[in-house]
Amino acid sequence: MDGEKFLAEKFQADRARLRAAAYRMLGSRTEAEDAVQEAWLRLGHSDMTEVGNLSGWLTTVVARICLDMLRARKLRREEAWGPHVPEPASSNGDAEHEAVLADSVGAALLIVLETLTPAERLAFVLHDMFAIPFDEIAVIVDRTPDAARQLASRARRRVQGARTSVDADRSAQRGIVEAFLAASRGGDFEALLAVLDPDVVFRADAAAVKLGSLAEIRGAAAVANTFKGRAIGAQPAFVDDGFGLIVEAGGQLRVILRLTISDGKIAGVQAIADPDRLGEIGFTLFNQP
Question: Mean pLDDT over residues 87-115, rounded?
Answer without folding.
Answer: 51
